[in-house]
């Protein structure tokens, strides 16, 4: 599928916010960065994880991000031998602004629409939005999150969170659910009710369960 690629526009203002929006304000750009916050991806994976974007538009956005030094291409060693896109140091500088914007927008997902698309990778990336580093000091734990069979690892190291795709080694906690349950826990379903009804399954150290519940909490306002 191809999409029409509009010419890039500029606010032409001597202002860091305006200049940032010149780079990041185009449709799909920040969502590409969001997906790469969970680790490098091949072009095909990015395309599959951004339903609605056309191949030519994705190629144009990746080219722009690479030109601005926000992402780079890297060739994986054999036997994989494929090319992936990953964030540069400048790109990782967008992690906190994206989380802040996501926290601001949490109120919008309480109006969940069944027509809206969802991907497990977005759910994993969303852990960074609801993470509370102020209550994670002194915690050194690893959690494995499984959503619709896709597996992600969240590591907390003294208030610092890292999220990557793939299974965890010796996780302190393993959580499993389907996409519908994950979406519901972002709006109307409490984790306790999800556990009681069997929609959410948890295995692991009881202390890790308590830590996770305190550190990852969807704001109620």
Distance between the termini: 39 Å
String of helices and strands: HHEHHEEHHHEEEEHHEH
* Average of per-residue pLDDT values: 93
Instruction: Return the CATH architecture of the largest domain.
Output: 2-Layer Sandwich
Describe the structure.
- It is a single chain.
- The longest helix has 13 residues, at 55-67.
- The strands form two sheets. A five-stranded mixed sheet has the order 6-5-4-7-8. Strands 1-3-2 form a three-stranded antiparallel sheet.
- The protein has two domains: 16-93, Winged helix-like DNA-binding domain superfamily/Winged helix DNA-binding domain (Arc Repressor Mutant, subunit A, Orthogonal Bundle); 114-215, Nonspecific Lipid-transfer Protein, Chain A, CATH 3.30.1050.10.
- A hairpin with a 2-residue loop joins strand 5 (150-157) and strand 6.
- Helix 6 (95-104) crosses helix 7.
- It is an alpha+beta fold and 221 residues long.
- The protein contains ten helices and eight strands.
Write the layout of secondary structure elements.
Layout: H1 16-24, H2 29-36, E1 41-42, H3 43-48, H4 55-67, E2 71-75, E3 83-87, H5 89-92, H6 95-104, H7 120-130, E4 140-147, E5 150-157, E6 160-165, E7 173-177, H8 179-185, H9 191-196, E8 201-204, H10 206-215
Parallel strand pairs: 4-7
Antiparallel strand pairs: 1-3, 2-3, 4-5, 5-6, 7-8
Helix pairs in contact: 6-7
Summarize this structure as a short list of keywords or feature phrases.
3-stranded antiparallel sheet, 5-stranded mixed sheet, Nonspecific Lipid-transfer Protein, Chain A, Arc Repressor Mutant, subunit A, alpha+beta, 221 residues, 2 domains, single chain, 19% strand, 10 helices
């Amino acid at each position: 599928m191809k999409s029409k690629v509009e010419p890039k526009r500029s606010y032409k203002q001597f202002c860091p916010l305006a200049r940032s929006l010149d780079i990041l304000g185009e449709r799909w750009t920040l969502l590409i960065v969001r997906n790469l916050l969970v680790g490098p991806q091949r072009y095909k994976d990015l395309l599959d994880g951004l339903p609605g974007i056309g191949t030519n538009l994705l190629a144009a956005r990746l080219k722009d991000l690479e030109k601005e030094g926000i992402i780079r291409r890297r060739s994986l060693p054999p036997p994989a031998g494929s090319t992936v896109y990953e964030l540069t140091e400048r790109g990782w500088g967008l992690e906190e602004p994206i989380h802040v914007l996501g926290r601001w927008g949490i109120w919008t997902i309480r109006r969940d629409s069944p027509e809206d698309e969802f991907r497990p990778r977005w759910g994993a990336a969303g852990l960074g939005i609801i993470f509370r580093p102020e209550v994670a000091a002194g915690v050194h734990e690893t959690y494995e999150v499984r959503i619709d069979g896709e597996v992600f690892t969240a590591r907390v190291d003294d208030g610092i969170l890292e999220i990557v795709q793939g299974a965890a080694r010796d996780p302190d906690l393993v959580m499993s659910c389907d996409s519908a349950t994950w979406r519901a826990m972002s709006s109307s379903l409490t984790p306790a009710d999800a556990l009681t009804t069997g929609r959410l399954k948890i295995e692991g150290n009881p202390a890790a369960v308590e830590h996770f519940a305190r550190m990852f909490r969807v704001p109620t306002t």
